[in-house]
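hey can u check if this looks right to u? its 250 residues, i copy pasted from the old doc so theres a chance i mangled smth
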Amino acid sequence: MQCVLFAGLLCMIGVVGVQSHPEMNSDNKSELSSLTSSSKISNSLRDLLNQESLIRFSMTQKIQGLVMDALDNKNNSLTLKKKLRYITTELQSIEAKDQVMKEENAQLKQELNTVKEAINSDKNLIMQQIQSLIKTGISVLAEKMEDENSKFRQELMILNETNQRVQEENSKLRLQFQMINGSLQQHDLQLLNISTQLSSGTLSLNSPHGSCMGILQSDPDVKGKDGVYSIYVGYHIRKVYCDMTTDGGG
């Protein structure tokens, strides 16, 4: 482009030099021809400058679009990080509750063992008391003890079910944490790739678009060239088959 502009400038300088020395041109037709050539060169230069301006403007708009996409990805990454911190906090809270429940269960088991040991050690005394209480309504006492034992068993079952639900929720939260962490790593890689291409100036117009129509609009030369292209699906780059022929392509 610079060579063409330089050549056009030289031609214009030559035409001006010829016009400043009319004694060197004796024929009026050659002068008219020179003026016509100068006008054509000027028009060509203006066309070239206009084309260059349009190309620069188009490139600037596309680079600005890519920068905005990079900022959107960065904002999405920050949002995901906030959600990750919230889930991590919830997970820590649930783990703390789980630890408290385990300690309570351990304490209950210890108390139960203590009761069992006391029952075993005082079995003879209890038998004597039972025998002495047979005449004074042992059946009523046995029913009360059975009710208390039943309540204790129900409470123990509830504790076990609660503990199981907590463990299941912990497993689900860990799985969500792993999925979000993997998604964040992919976003960080994409942001790093875009930042590297922007800083090095190697980002081209053939970067993946969000659809086959986007590829066709950015590069009309692919019209009629059916095949596999790379596009963005969500926040991931996927290879898909694009029909660039039917109904104008895309």
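The chain has a mean pLDDT of 76.
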